[in-house]
Amino acid sequence: MSGVRLREGESFDSLLKRFRKVLAKDGILQEVKRTQFYEKPSEKRKKELMAARRRLLRKLKRMEE
After folding, report:
1. Percent of the chain with pLDDT over 70
2. Total number of domains in the chain
3. Cross-referenced Pfam families, in alphabetical order (predicted)?
């Protein structure tokens, strides 16, 4: 479980910023967003194929430049 401890003299804003950074590093926010709603397996496959296609097109575009 991710967590941060309040440092001496640290403001709440900087504590919150560090906490969000830890969550992003651990991939927790992405996991929550991904599992928040049920996604049918067929939709999941379609989404993964589209992402792979976008990556390939970006890679080809970079090679052309």
Report:
1. 100
2. 1
3. Ribosomal_S21 (PF01165)
